Structures are given as structure tokens and as C-alpha cells.
Amino acid sequence: MRQLSESSITDAVLDRFAACDDPRFKTIMTALVRHMHDFVREVGLTEAEWMAGIQFLTATGQTCTDKRQEFILLSDTLGVSMLVDAINNRKPTGALESAVQGPYYWEGAPERPLGSNLAEGVKGEPAFYSGRVLTLDGAPVADALLDVWSGDGEGNYDMQLPGQTEMLARGKLRTDAEGRYRFRSIRPASYPVPTDGPVGMMLNRMGRHPYRPGHIHMIVSAPGFQTVTTQLFVSGDAYLDSDAVFGVKESLIIDFQRHEPGIAPTGEAMAVPFHTVEHDFVLCPVMEPALQD
Amino acid sequence: MRQLSESSITDAVLDRFAACDDPRFKTIMTALVRHMHDFVREVGLTEAEWMAGIQFLTATGQTCTDKRQEFILLSDTLGVSMLVDAINNRKPTGALESAVQGPYYWEGAPERPLGSNLAEGVKGEPAFYSGRVLTLDGAPVADALLDVWSGDGEGNYDMQLPGQTEMLARGKLRTDAEGRYRFRSIRPASYPVPTDGPVGMMLNRMGRHPYRPGHIHMIVSAPGFQTVTTQLFVSGDAYLDSDAVFGVKESLIIDFQRHEPGIAPTGEAMAVPFHTVEHDFVLCPVMEPALQD
Ligand SMILES: [Cu+2]
Ligand SMILES: [Fe+3]
Ligand SMILES: [Fe+3]
Question: Could you give the C-alpha distances from A145 to A34, A104, A261, in angstroms and in order?
Fold first, then answer.
């Protein structure tokens, strides 16, 4: 076809995929082209707007480094990441829900004994976390692995602290025979996503703030169960209703009980106020039949 | 809203634009989010596919340099550029149609006298171009400017030739009192878009070739008339029906008449075969009333 119009060009592009021998790739690219073209037609995109889009995408790619992923941030702030999460992690009621991993995961945190303090030398109010890992029927899951990380009490991850080359506020823990876990860390604080790149400019122009409510990240796994990457959010945080990356789920909001200086659950005497958190994680078995259809 | 579902997350994202004080930006971002989310839901994008998309976009941004724009190439090869062109350059029948500028424009080509050879030292079969610039009523447009560029007869632009720092096969010409233009260049050849980057990998995986039919680029302008950025395509080219960037329009395909060695239209004696091309350009006035509604 040699004379493509505003409407016929879409099918002309799709016709070109005829020789594609990867059916899934063809399905994805076909849908992508249709939705992109519909978008352009719907808004009547001008040539200047198209060029602004090209420049934005280019700058976004060029902002990415080993330590920074601006396209993931773009996906996060437009709700695409949590949509993909929702589609791929449908859970039965009561089961631990998922949240995105985010950009601050650091492979290889050390495994620590139950009750360890993961936050030696980390700023923030101490918090003692405990609870159980359970099956959907309420049976304990022994030997489940919790891979935990968070920023400090001021909202900064170790990777973001100038000159900090060692891990902070990270560690792995295994549940005991009754499925129990316990560890000490800090109460996490809200923090802004990086705003000095193209995505920050976009948020600003949209009239949006860049803050995430305080949260602690966790990957919970156990043999025979579905691994869950998730976040626990601090109840009462000012940004729970407007998380810049749309990550909050009701079941992931947990209460931090504040205590005056005194004896902590570990038996140690605390000279400063501290928090306690108790939360159980319910895991789904791999190949849960009810989820297969 | 704290419990976002696969369907409610889209409205939750759109609600965040409430404070945006740029109505056009809000319109564009609203449509973009809707179509992106619909795309993700429609194909049921997996987390691995999402990550492949993130990596593709990142690599595309990082392939861009001062001399290469991989996101424009992506837009071109998915038909988005020509769709934007079509929407923004609706022309009455008979008027010169537009085509995309492409990545090989080089600002500041010299103005040359009518009849000049723009292709001194350029590989390829000589071609003598001539014709008129006219109004919709057929009146000549004197002093119209043609800004002309092409690759050589092997499909390479000057910018692509190693060590070539001077312009080749480029120049500006002005029509005479009868609206006539004439210049010598070469007959352009088909060429592949760059295939050594992410877009090349994409085309390959789609089962598509990267070729564009032979064409000469031109920006035609005159005071009081709408400027037209366009391309003229070589009739008979093998890729007219499958241009990798969907640029071909029927009215832009022109005949190259081949002549055995002999006397050229300029009067010079040609020792090699040469071509002649005759084509008129019809320009629309600025603020053409029929196009205003
Ligand atoms: Cu759509
Ligand atoms: Fe985080
Ligand atoms: Fe070209």
C-alpha cells in the first residue's frame, strides 16, 4: 500500500509483522502499535509535542546508570509497574500481597540469627519486628527466608549515603520451627523518589509530589511456596493515600506501636523510645490449584 | 485510595493529575496513561516482558548520540512518525505532500545558482532535476527555496562516509521568475536504516527488512506559503511497497528517465548514462481558508 492515511497506516504497520515467527512478540507489538497510534490520533499530537516526547525518552534513557533506572521510575510513577504487579500476582484473600521491588535492592545481604539488629549504626527510631510465616490454613512455615531491606529513619538507603560502601539496614532471617521471625531495625521514613532527572520534571509539571510513605522491603520465600516481593507500610504516614509509585495496599499497612524508653521485647534496656511491630505473612503453595484456571 | 486493583489503578493515576495547571499536558498524559494501561491489560504483560521493555527503552536512549537518534528511528519504524506527519500536514488534492525529515538533514547547505551540480565527487548515476513551483491555481512561485539533500548512488549520506567532514549532495536553490528550478545530482539508491542498535534487533525479530526505497529529500518554502518537508521516491524501486519507515506516498513517486551517454539538458556532453526528472511542486498559501476548520 503506497498511500497511507491517518487511519490506514496502523494496519499497514501491522501487516509488516506477517513474517514474525514469534507469536507472543507479534501479539505484544501488535497491541503496542495499535494503542500508540490510537493515542497519537486521540490527542492529535503535534510535531513539536512528538519531538518533546522523543527528547524526553532520550533523556530518560541517558539518565540510567548502574545505580539508577529512570525508565523503571517512569513506569512506577505512571502506575505501570504496579499494574504489571497486580496482573502477575493475583492472591487469594488473606495471603501476603506483593509490591514492587524498587531500585534499592542489593543482592547478597548476610543471613543473621533470629533477633539480630539489622540496623547497627543506622539513624532512626529502633523498631522490633516479629510475627510468623503461615500457610493459607494457618500452619507454621519453618525455615522460611525473609530478605529484608529499608532506608534509615530519615528516608535514605545505604546506597544513597555519600561514601557508604557497606550494606546498612539489610539482612536475611529464617523462621524457627514454629514459623516465627524476629529482628530489630528502625521505623522507616517517607522519602522522595529521585527528582533531579526527566521523571522529576514530569512529576513537577503534573503538579505531583515525589514522596513514598515509609516502608520496609521484604522478599519472603520458602520451599514449596510462592515467593513474594513486598513492602510493609507505616500506618499513619502522611503519604499513604498518595504514594508517588502507587504501591500501597491495605493489607500491607502495619501499626508501629511506640514505647517510652524501657525494656525491649529482646530483653535489652532501651534508653530511647522504640517501636514494636507484629505481622504474620501467609504464603500460597506453588501450583495452588485454585489459581490455575 | 489504598487498595488499587488491575482496573482501578488507571483512574487512581489519572486522579493524581488534578493539580496539573497545563491543560494540554494533562490531556496528553491522561490519554497516554489510559492507552499504556490498556495495552498492559490487553496482552497480560508478564514481569519478564515488562523488564525486557525497560531494558529495550534504556538501550534505545543510550544508543542516541549527536549523530544518531534511535528513538526517532523507533518512532519511524513503528509508523508513529508518518502518522504524526499525516495528522499535522493535511493537504488539498494536488498540493505537494509531506514526508518525514529523517535523521540526515544537515543545517546550512550553501545556496547555489540554478543548474548547479550538487553532486561533485558523489558516487552514482547523474540525474538532472527540473520543474516548477506553483500555486494551487497553477501560477508560478518565483523565489521559492528548495533545500535539497540525498545520499549517494550507493545509499550512503555524506555523514555516514568515514572521514567525510564536508557536505556532499546538498544545496539550496531558488526558483526563477517563472517558478522554474533545475539542478544536477545523482539518482538516489535504496538503503537500510541503521541495524546495529536496538531498533535493528526489533526489526529482525519482527521478520522485517530495514530498507528504504531510493529518495531525495527536499524542504520547499516560499514567503506566504506553507513550508513542506518532503521526499521524492524513485519509481520502480523494489522497496516502494515496504519502506521500513512507511514514508512513501503515491504523489511523491517520480520517474527517472534513463538516457544513454550524450548531451544533457544543461548542454554538457555526458560520457556515462544519465537520468532526467521533471516534477512540479504545488504549495498551499499560509492560512489557506479551506483548511482552517
Ligand atoms: Cu489504547
Ligand atoms: Fe523503598
Ligand atoms: Fe533519506
Answer: 43, 19, 31
Domain range for A11 is 1-45
Judgement on whether residues B175 and B274 belong to the same structural domain of the protein: yes
Q: Are residues A122 and A259 in the same domain?
A: yes
CB-nearest to B86 from A6, A42, A43 is A6
Please tell me whether residue A38 adopts helix, strand or coil conformation.
helix
Residues contacting residue A9 through CB under 8 Å, at least 6 positions apart? A37, B79, B82, B83, B86, B246
Return the H-helix or E-strand segment holding A127. strand A126-135
Same domain, B216 and B174: yes
- A65 part of a folded domain: no
For the domain that residue A117 is a member of, what is the CATH number? Answer: 2.60.130.10
Give distance in angstroms: CA of B21 to centre of ligand 1: 25
**pLDDT band at B4, cuts 50/70/90?**
confident
Residues 78-117 of B with CB under 8 A from A: 78-88
Q: Does B209 touch chain A (CB under 8 A)?
A: no
The tens digit of pLDDT for each residue in A91-129 reads: 999 999 999 898 899 999 999 999 999 999 899 999 999
Residue A50, in any domain of the structure: no
Nearest CB to B40 within list A22, A43, A83: A83
Answer whether B58 sits within 8 Å of A69, measured CB to CB.
yes
Name the domain count of chain B: 2
ipTM value of the model?
0.92
